[in-house]
Amino acid sequence: SKVRHFRWEVGYMFWSPDCVENVVMGINGQFPGPTIRAKAGDTIVVHLTNKLHTEGVVIHWHGIRQFETPWADGTASISQCVINPEETFVYRFKVDKAGTYFYHGHYGMQRSAGLYGSLIVDVADGEKDPFHYDGEFSLLLSDWWHKNVHDQAVGLSSNPFRWIGEPQSILINGRGQYNCSLAAHVSNTSSSLCSLRGDAQCAPHVLHVQPNKTYRLRIASTTSLSSLNLAIGHHKMILVEADGNYIKPVAVDNIDIYSGESYSVLFTTDQNPSTNYWISATVRGRHPQTPPGLTILNYHPNSPSIPTSAPPVSPAWDDYGYSKSFSNKIIALQGSPKPPIRRDRQIILLNTQNKINGFNKWSINNISLVLPATPYLGSIKFGLKGAFDHQGPPDNFSRNYDIMKPPMNPNSTQGSGVYTIHFNSIVDVILQNANAMAANVSEIHPWHLHGHDFWVLGYGEGKFSEKDAKRLNLKNPPLRNTVVIFPYGWTAIRFVADNPGVWAFHCHIEPHLHMGMGVIFSEAVERIKKIPEEAIACGLTGKMLMHNHGG
Ligand SMILES: O=C1O[C@H]([C@@H](O)CO)C(O)=C1O
């Protein structure tokens, strides 16, 4: 295995992700940031220098479990102090499992500002994937607003509340088209056909293929808000990987992908080779006001021109039955690690939209998460009293809460308390969805766990009951790091607390996390040996270091 070094500078720059010039957060002058490619077992070392003028930054390596390096998880106020302008922080961590991953900012709304890129881990030398392919491509999906993230964040924390609204564009590898459509001539749209130079920043990323070959398409979603459906016109796909875990191969026409998820699919170029085909990413789960993101599958030796057929038709945005049946198709590949058959602890998390002093929030068991000034990892390790709320949040919610109705009393509180998890204990979490503040509204939330993969034991409708607990899938549940809760439904997961650290578990919709939709798991922190000083040189841990050094 190798040690792979990267020197990165994060900075704002002018860029036209969807043909409209804006300010984006880039890395080394690139948007999206550079792709990291490594082999399982390698060590990645990223020297990250903050070239933003007046704000801190961190980067989270989404899906990488950070065994023995919990300070490198890249979560502001949780695993480390933010990196200040002109400072360099060294992220050093092992990528221990092959798969499709990505990285992104995890401070304020910096992911929405464009701070993201792909992280791809190939199998180690001498190892093989359990499937064959002739070539591969990688698509990183995101959504893009013309309103800058500062305005977005201020709106979310204002009274009256200003919602960010739906995105202007869906980007595929950082490229979308706002004021025109690649498919104007073949779909019923009022937009005009794009006339783009191939080297324009918003020109689509074209996939060049040979006929009669099999390709692996790696797809990851780092959207701020949007749930997407991805399809390749006229081609079937076989799903083989989810969130860096092999799954039982299953043939599908298209895939639902929620923010924080990744998949690999195989497709064979067995269609009429005299034409090109569309790849589309269409908004689902919220009333779409954003045209699909599009790119082109270009069969050799055709020119990379616009396909003559219409883009694929996706399921209706509110066809949740379709989404549920898709999610239920994902099961573990035979021979994958199985979950332990019993649990040590069950935590039931009610997801509600709330008000605090007139401000809109999201709460979990009636507590809206606010992050403390001193990152948890250091304050917990050194027992610094007063760094965050002493009282841990509850493991359950009131039994008579009606999840089908808007909250009777929408007032909630904010808090920074943590769930303390014992080393090697087996934890079940039941994510319980509910009605939002408006009547007859319940939204999709993709939940992402840091530091772990978990088994998805099942999805269900309504309020989770003891009956449901007996019917969980312990036979072949898939391992993942992100899972969705459907409107008015619940989702059950299980994980083994085998990774000392402080780990966020949160809705991956960035404005929702910003509004408090997450919890913190403090796991066996007493087992962590030496935390690098640069991760904790702020707040109360910074003061402690100063005293220790006789400052
Ligand atoms: O957090 C959210 O706020 C809006 C809406 O509920 C209020 O405008 C919305 O759709 C969200 O997901």
UniProtKB/TrEMBL annotation:
Reaction(s) catalysed by this chain's protein: 4 L-ascorbate + O2 = 4 monodehydro-L-ascorbate radical + 2 H2O
Enzyme Commission number:
1.10.3.3
Q: Which cofactor does it need?
A: Cu cation
Q: Name one GO biological process term.
A: response to virus
Q: Where is the Plastocyanin-like domain?
A: 10-122, 137-301, 405-524
Q: Which GO terms describe its cellular component?
A: extracellular region; plasmodesma
Q: Major place of localization?
A: secreted
Q: Write out the annotated subcellular location.
A: Secreted
Superkingdom of origin: Eukaryota
Keywords, in A-Z order: Copper, Disulfide bond, Glycoprotein, Metal-binding, Oxidoreductase, Repeat, Secreted, Signal
Molecular function terms from GO: copper ion binding; L-ascorbate oxidase activity
InterPro entries, sorted? Cu-oxidase-like_N, Cu-oxidase_2nd, Cu-oxidase_C, Cu-oxidase_fam, Cu_oxidase_CS, Cu_oxidase_Cu_BS, Cupredoxin, CuRO_1_AAO
User: Which PANTHER family does this chain map to?
Assistant: FI03373P-RELATED, MULTI-COPPER OXIDASE
This chain's function reads:
May be involved in a redox system involving ascorbic acid.
Q: Which family, according to the similarity comment?
A: Belongs to the multicopper oxidase family.
| Protein name, UniProt field | L-ascorbate oxidase
Question: Which organism's genome codes for this protein?
Answer: Macleaya cordata (Five-seeded plume-poppy)
